[in-house]
Design brief:
This protein has 675 residues and is α+β, with helices and mostly antiparallel strands. The protein has four domains: 83 residues, Phosphorylase Kinase, domain 1, CATH 3.30.200; 240 residues, Orthogonal Bundle (Transferase(Phosphotransferase), domain 1); 245 residues, no CATH class; 46 residues. Helix content is 55%, strand content 8%. It contains 24 helices and nine strands. Strand 5 and strand 6 form a beta hairpin. Helix 8 packs antiparallel against helix 9, helix 18 runs antiparallel to helix 20 and helix 20 packs antiparallel against helix 21. About 17% of the residues have low confidence.
Length: 675
């Protein structure tokens, strides 16, 4: 039902329309006798299809009206106009948080000022058994005195009563801010759902972008359920590790791993800001974060290594979650499908398979992997520092990180010692060449002449030093951290959250698979630098020997004359052909792995989409009573429509589009005509 300006609605005169959402249209109105402006929320006609809707709506509106908190928009009245129900609420003169973010990002001080009252309002509602279920910036209103208010509790589901639902046959919430358990359509939600949504809002305000965004609502919901949270420190470098830990806990996939209340989340955030010394946030963080997020989505890692297993997470019910862990643990969903696959593989291990015969054929790479494993297992006999490859397989996150850092420190020291020895030895040879030690210089001059012979040592040894530098660069710093993250994500993806219980050889196999592309790149880089340095050495030798007689190795005589042909160019050409072949081999291998992984990921997404659709249909079947099914059976199309409604079309804010609202109105009119 659409209201006109100056239309009289009971005791209220409609002034103007304020906005339209997926559940209702909001108008500004005036109550003449009380001389105050109010906000009227007129629910869409689609909800009138349910015969019991008005009764449930009034019951739940009365419950919500009991909420008396300074940061919750109160409900003044409830009424209906020709059977169309509406709510009358306090009118807040101001703007939504969403509108304010469009104008400019919030300063850190504003975040610390605005969100704690919202968290307190949520905790207050939770103690009375009321969930909001649609926390987002457009439902947070900031008045002209900079006081925040939480609105739209009219969409809440009552936890204590269990039987109430303003929309029992649809998924309430905005995809960008929806918790995983809410996204899969669970009815037994708890306060952790609102904590997750508030965590998404906090992530958006601090990092500068939403953690999950995509072209379709389903893709966004899929990422909330299955995709690991993009690390805030990687998306926005100014975010501190302490703040990142708070966000990781707040946005854990498992509700039990989150903060026990919204207030606990904001307290942890305030403490993290104070502990890390974070003072300000860049006003350009949205642009920086958007660029970083675009690079992440464009990388192979984002598509091939989701942080959670490709299966429906086993999310617990609404029991009060325990206190959050002391250290951030990016919670991954339970990998039921991966666990089933690994269990089936173990059960059938005794059965001979053709694939086993094929894989048992000789492979040089396989032999080298076995030699590497033996050396890896032997490491620590003469050195107490475990290798990076062993450290990454340690289940304890903190201990694994410590061992990896110890290994990186050791590798850096080895390189700098190598470089120091290189400089000392070659520096000494150059001093001898320039005559600092006359007697020694005379001896070398008699043997090599006046040519700069130390360059031969510099180029030959330098090739090994540069290859060592490439290896050290690859095995240290953020590159090693990112590789460790991908390996541990792949382990969770393959064996589930309890991956440490898998066979060690299986863990190594997964690790080698993840490391393979990087290993090939490093090998090519080392090949390239050795190619450059050795060819430089050969040209230096050619320059030194140019014009000299070269002994004939066949008969011991001397070849009369000199060899002026630049023979090193032959080495450069033929070796260069091998180098190019190596380059294309590495490129093809890396691309092949990427194509295979993306194809596997697409198939997983397709299967998850089918599983999610089937689960929603089952949930809807459970909610349909026998009488509803019998009534709907009069029209087979009605049953199909009840169990498989038309595709939901949403705006960028997660609200129904105009065409979607027209479709709902048409369905409501058709059902009215049938009755």
């Amino acid at each position: 039902m659409t209201l006109r300006d100056d239309q009289q609605l009971g005791q209220y005169r409609v002034i103007s329309q304020l906005g339209q959402g997926g559940m209702a249209t909001v108008y500004r109105a005036y109550h003449a006798r009380l001389d105050r402006h109010v906000a009227i929320k007129m629910l869409h006609p689609a909800f009138l299809e349910d015969h019991d809707f008005l009764e449930r709506f009034e019951r739940e509106a009365r419950i919500v009206a009991r909420l008396e908190h300074p940061n919750i928009v109160p409900i003044y009245d409830i009424a209906d106009e020709n059977g169309h129900p509406y709510l009358v609420m306090k009118f807040i003169e101001g703007r939504t948080l969403k509108r304010r973010l469009v104008e400019s990002p919030l300063a850190l001080a504003d975040v610390l000022h605005l969100l704690p009252p919202i968290a307190a309002a949520l905790d207050y509602a939770h103690t009375r058994g009321i969930l909001h279920r649609d926390i987002k910036p457009s439902n947070i209103i900031i008045d002209n005195q900079d006081t925040p208010y939480l609105t739209d509790f009219g969409l809440a589901r009552m936890v204590q009563t269990g039987g109430s639902s303003l929309s029992s046959d649809m998924m309430i919430g905005t995809p960008h801010y929806m918790s995983p358990e809410q996204a899969i359509g669970r009815g037994d939600l708890g306060p952790a759902t609102d904590v997750y949504a508030l965590g998404v809002v906090l992530y958006e305000l601090i990092v500068g972008v939403l953690p999950f965004n995509a072209d379709t609502p389903f893709a966004i919901i899929h990422d909330h359920i299955y995709r690991a949270l993009p690390l805030p420190t990687q998306i926005n470098p100014e975010v501190t590790l302490e703040v990142e830990q708070v966000l990781l806990i707040a946005l854990a996939k498992d509700p039990a791993a989150r903060y026990q209340s919204a207030g606990a989340l904001m307290t942890a955030f305030r403490d993290a800001v104070a502990a890390s010394g974070l003072q300000t946030l860049s006003p350009n963080r949205a642009a920086v974060a958007s660029e970083s997020m675009a690079k992440l989505r464009g990388s192979e890692d984002y598509f091939t290594l989701p942080g959670a297993a490709a299966s429906t997470p086993a999310l617990p019910g609404p029991a009060a979650p325990p206190s959050p862990p002391s250290a951030a643990t990016p919670a991954a969903a339970a990998a039921q499908a991966a666990e089933s696959a690994s269990t089936a593989g173990t059960a059938d291990a005794s059965k001979p398979k053709r694939r086993d015969v094929v894989e048992s054929s000789f492979s040089f790479d396989h032999v080298m992997d076995q030699i590497g494993d033996a050396l890896e297992d032997a490491s620590g006999i003469f050195d107490n520092t475990p290798s990076w490859k062993k450290a990454v397989l340690i289940p304890d996150e903190a201990l694994s990180l410590r061992r990896r850092l110890e290994w990186e420190f050791k590798k850096r020291n080895e390189f700098w010692i190598h470089a120091l020895i290189f400089l000392i030895i070659n520096g000494g040879l150059m001093l001898v060449f320039f005559g600092v030690m006359p007697q020694l210089a005379a001896a070398f001059r008699d043997e090599f002449g006046s040519q700069p012979w130390p360059l031969i040592v510099v180029f030959a040894w330098g090739s090994g030093l540069l290859a060592h530098a490439v290896e050290t660069y690859h095995e240290t710093g953020h590159r090693a951290s990112e590789r460790a993250r991908r390996i541990r994500a792949a382990l969770r993806d393959s064996f589930g959250p309890d991956w440490s219980n898998a066979e060690r050889n299986d863990l190594k196999r997964v690790r080698r698979r993840v490391e393979a592309p990087d290993k090939k790149r490093v090998e090519f880089a080392q090949h390239f630098v050795v190619y450059l340095m050795i060819n430089a050495m050969l040209f230096a030798i050619f320059r030194m020997t140019q014009g000299l007689n070269i002994p004939d190795m066949l008969d011991g005589d001397f070849v009369m004359g000199a060899i002026d042909f630049p023979w090193p160019i032959l080495v450069t050409i033929f070796w260069g052909v091998g180098l190019m072949a190596h380059f294309f081999e590495v490129r093809a291998a890396v691309r092949r792995e990427g194509v295979i992984d993306r194809a596997i990921e697409r198939e997983r997404r397709r299967q998850m989409r089918l599983d999610l659709r089937e689960e929603k249909r089952k949930n809807k079947r459970k909610r349909l009573t026998d009488s509803q099914i019998a009534a709907s059976a009069r029209d087979d199309s009605a049953v199909d429509e009840a169990l498989d409604p038309p595709t939901v079309r949403l705006t960028s804010d997660g609200e129904f589009t105009d065409s979607m609202m027209e479709s709902l109105d048409e369905r409501g009119q058709q059902r009215s005509d049938q009755r």
